[in-house]
C-alpha cells in the first residue's frame, strides 16, 4: 500500500470513529418528559383541573407548550402553559373546562435552556 492509500485509509478510520462516537453519545442536554400529573397512561377518577409536566432539564417558556385533545382529535380548551418559577423544569397548564369521561391526548413541545428541542405525547383517561 502506498502512502496515499494509507492516508486515505487512516482518514476513513478517523471519520468512522467520529461518526460512531457522535451518533451514539447520549443526548444529555435534551429536556425529556420525566413524569406528569395525570400520569402517562393513567386512569383518574374525576376530571383534573390542571396538567403538570415535569422535564429532565429546565425549559425555556417562550418556546414550550402543550395541547390537549380528545382521543378523537377534538381540541380541548386550556390555559396557556406556564413554567413554575420555583421549578423551571415544570410546566403547568390549566384545563379550561371539566373533562368528560374518556381518553385524552397531551402533546408537548419544549426547548431546553440550552436550546435543544424535544416533543412527545401521552394519553390519560378520565374514568366514568
TrEMBL record:
<keyword id="KW-0574">Periplasm</keyword>
<feature type="signal peptide">
    <location>
        <begin position="1"/>
        <end position="22"/>
    </location>
</feature>
<keyword id="KW-0186">Copper</keyword>
<keyword id="KW-0479">Metal-binding</keyword>
<protein>
    <submittedName>
        <fullName>Copper homeostasis periplasmic binding protein CopC</fullName>
    </submittedName>
</protein>
<keyword id="KW-0732">Signal</keyword>
<dbReference type="InterPro" id="IPR014756">
    <property type="entry name" value="Ig_E-set"/>
</dbReference>
<comment type="similarity">
    <text>Belongs to the CopC family.</text>
</comment>
<dbReference type="InterPro" id="IPR047685">
    <property type="entry name" value="CopC-like"/>
</dbReference>
<dbReference type="InterPro" id="IPR014755">
    <property type="entry name" value="Cu-Rt/internalin_Ig-like"/>
</dbReference>
<dbReference type="InterPro" id="IPR007348">
    <property type="entry name" value="CopC_dom"/>
</dbReference>
<dbReference type="Pfam" id="PF04234">
    <property type="entry name" value="CopC"/>
</dbReference>
<dbReference type="InterPro" id="IPR032694">
    <property type="entry name" value="CopC/D"/>
</dbReference>
<feature type="domain" description="CopC">
    <location>
        <begin position="30"/>
        <end position="126"/>
    </location>
</feature>
Amino acid at each position: 500500500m502506498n502512502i496515499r492509500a494509507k492516508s486515505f485509509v487512516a482518514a476513513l478510520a478517523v471519520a468512522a470513529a467520529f461518526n460512531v462516537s457522535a451518533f451514539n453519545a447520549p443526548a444529555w442536554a435534551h429536556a425529556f418528559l420525566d413524569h406528569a400529573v395525570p400520569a402517562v397512561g393513567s386512569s383518574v377518577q374525576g376530571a383534573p383541573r390542571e396538567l403538570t409536566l415535569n422535564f429532565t432539564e429546565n425549559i425555556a417558556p417562550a418556546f414550550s407548550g402543550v395541547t390537549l385533545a380528545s382521543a378523537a382529535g377534538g381540541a380541548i380548551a386550556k390555559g396557556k402553559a406556564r413554567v413554575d418559577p420555583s421549578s423551571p423544569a415544570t410546566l403547568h397548564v390549566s384545563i379550561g373546562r371539566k373533562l368528560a369521561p374518556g381518553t385524552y391526548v397531551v402533546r408537548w413541545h419544549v426547548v431546553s435552556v440550552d436550546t435543544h428541542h424535544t416533543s412527545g405525547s401521552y394519553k390519560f383517561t378520565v374514568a366514568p
